[in-house]
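Lecture 7 notes: from sequence to structure.

We start with a single chain of 381 residues. Read the sequence below before looking at the structure.
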Amino acid sequence: MAGWSGIRLKKTLVFLLQWVSAGLAVAFIVMLLRPDLAGRAGDSASYGPAASGSFSRAVASAGPSVVNIYTRRQVIRGGGAETRRRSIPPAPLRTMPPAIRYENSLGSGVIVSPDGYVLTNNHVVDKALEIAVLLADGRYAAAEVLGSDPDTDLALLRIGLDELKAIKLGRSEAVQVGDVVLAIGNPLGLGQTVTQGIVSATGRSRLGLSTFEDFIQTDALINDGNSGGALINARGELIGINTAVLSQRMRTQSTGIGFAIPVSMARGVMAQLIEHGHVIRGWLGVSSLEVTPELAEAAGLRSARGLWIEEVYAGTPAEDAGLRRGDVLTHVNGREIFYVQEALNLIAGMPPGDIVELAGSRGGREFSARVKISERPSPGS
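Now the structure, written as tokens:
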């Protein structure tokens, strides 16, 4: 057993060393090609909300709870294609074996419990064969995935280390546009890095990044490797998990628009992953479209509001309740709805077995339905 532990320890060290070397190489290239970037960090204190102060206390409080995550995946490319060798007479067809290689990736995570729970993005650890976590104090550990939720792009890991500092959780519902925020993560494998900005919008949705969206938008600089890291307020409290950046893919230029999953959503997902290993959500069993003036005219609808049911899936609560293609839903439990995301969030937030009251129109006449919702199937099932 001791021999096996030694081998595993050696493999993990080699794995991390590869990433450290890669990060130093990237840093050297960046400084060689863009020396002007070195001065910008020092200039940041001369403008903005921090002109008369410092965010060092917030970083000192939250920084030890933010970790670097390194993963390795098996990637299979090609294979199955038949090729013919050039010869006379022609050689028989033969099948080429698939090319198997290993791909390293990086990301960030946040320690949310002294028990070793680490919150990150699902896309950071999805299909990973190996996951290594490097702490701010230099310690490292292999991590296991306790559960994941592709619908929100969140995953919960666990590491077996003692004396872990859990980040203080804030209240994302109290976040306001204009609040100063800091993004902490592992961009480009350089190691823990802090960038500053403000909240530029809240409640961002319909971006196509995940099924359930309620993002905090920020102009704090986020790069590859920041995914799963912390977005904190000026008090060092976690208000979001950094998950995506809007990029124009133009050399080093950035749009300055990043998105974070609110901590209120992350807290609920984490609680269910700990208790059930997956997230339980309510489900009707329909797909729908937002009614636009064009759709209203094409479908002969009286008004351009509500959700037009595009499909009712077989064997679902919606079918059992008699919902039909072409029905227009305008209210869920008495609340007027305008967007698909809005209705999706309302239904998903209800436990299976609850009754939801729907109202809308069918063939130009008002109708209502009571539906006993079921559990939403997991993605891919």
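The CA atoms of residues 199 and 301 lie 39 Å apart. Keep this in mind for problem set 3.
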